[in-house]
Amino acid sequence: MPPNRGTSPTMREGSIASVTAGALAYARANGLYQRSGCRFPRRDSLMGTFKKLALTVMLIFSLFLLTPSNSSAIAKAQTRKTRSSHTHAPALTRGEMKEAEARLAEMGYGTDGGNGAIDTRNALIAFQKYEGRRVTGQMSREDLDLIINATAPVPKDSGYKHVEVDLDRQVLLLIDGDGIVKRVLPVSTGSDRHYNEKGMSGLAYTPRGRFRIYAKLSGWRKSPLGLLYYPNYFSDGLAIHGNPSVPQKPESHGCIRIPMSAAVEISRQLPLGTIVLIYDSQSFVSAKDWAAQNPER
Predict the structure, then answer these.
(1) CA distance 248 to 221
(2) For the whole model, what pTM was predicted?
């Protein structure tokens, strides 16, 4: 039988030597072996001798099999321990976090909220959503590597200033007149579920298509279904607005929720008449020609 892969030759030879010595001691004790040679037993004890010899061989064979198996188990356990030690990456340093934040800001993720400090958590959430990663809001070493090597998001439409809302990724992109993405924010849109609350009922749906900002307010606005912070209305009372709760998936009644830290800045960037494109993987419609035919009034 070939030796197990986890057993070293030295261990195997030592095990065999130990078993052999034990077998010889057993044979001498039972009159099966003499230094000058073999001693033939009497005929009346021949069957007993064969039985003892058979038991001796079985004992040797059993010990021979067990010893390498134990060595192999130890070797496998050491291998698992070694692999486990490599799965725990060292924590990110402050310098690495600063590098990641700078790169996120360079690509347009997050917002400084007007105070000069990037909202790192929401910037990371927007990045994870856009890149199709599991959304955690916690920076891992894998996230760091991807951020450093990532390219900036690209709009679906370009050539004019507008806003895009990607329903599949659950992100909002603010695009300037040169087609460059200036901001990428995490959003939560309509859940596509029926609701019946506060005396109102309907389908929590965010419409797809092309729209314009037709009204806006500063500060808080009380609506029948809740409070809106700096709302920018684009369709039948639906608005892009700040909200303390921006879930990782669609959970609104139809509005487009954005983080509170971004609400004031986005409101400033969305004057009346700004074009808003809302789409998923099956519903994108360009607004470039439509914008030229229907100029802002």
Answers:
(1) 24
(2) 0.69
